[in-house]
Write a structure and sequence with these properties.
Elements lengths: L1 H22 L2 H21 L3 H20 L3 H21 L6 H36 L21 E2 L6 E2 L4
Antiparallel strand pairs: 1-2
Length: 170
């Protein structure tokens, strides 16, 4: 599934590049090429080395587990990840006009905001573990789920002759 997603990502940037060529504007073509090369570089970092593939797959597993456990997590993630965080980063970018100190302040605020976003996402995992401990339950780790689909079990035959039954009939 990961190769399909990465290929679709490159395909959409190629479409944007073709659209920018039609405009015949240098800036549009330049931005489209930056987008294309950014995605190609990301694929070259994350895909060729198998241990590196585990990082985005593990992050997606955490996101999926949080959405299954907490119905509102999807809405929370969209609001925080795609609305509040970009608005904060945009607001912090205005400090750059203050000179060298503004650039330093911008980098500090950006790193703090991104770290806070990761903590807020992982907070949901901790809340579920704490709830289970108060209830006296043991938590089953979600990392034991296979990444691929497993083959269905083959029915076993119980008995012999005409009265034989398959385990799926029992």
């Amino acid at each position: 599934m990961l190769p399909l997603t990465l290929g679709a990502n490159i395909g959409t940037t190629c479409t944007a590049f073709l659209a920018s060529i039609v405009t015949e504007k240098k800036d549009a073509i330049q931005i489209a090429l930056c987008h294309l090369f950014f995605n190609i570089t990301g694929i070259l970092i994350w895909y060729p080395v198998p241990p590196m593939r585990r990082i985005p797959l593990g992050m997606s597993r955490i996101m999926a587990d949080n959405i299954v456990r907490f119905r509102m997590f999807g809405l929370y993630y969209i609001i925080v990840g795609f609305l509040l965080t970009p608005l904060l980063l945009l607001a912090f970018s205005f400090t750059i006009s203050l000179g060298t100190g503004g650039v330093f302040l911008n980098v500090i605020l950006d790193l703090f905001t991104i770290a806070l976003l990761f903590v807020l996402v992982l907070k949901f995992e901790w809340v579920d573990i704490i709830r289970a401990k108060f209830r006296g339950e043991t938590m089953q780790p979600s990392a034991d789920l296979p990444l691929e689909e497993s083959e269905p079990e083959k029915p076993t035959v119980v008995g012999d002759g005409d009265d034989a039954m398959q385990s799926t009939d029992i």
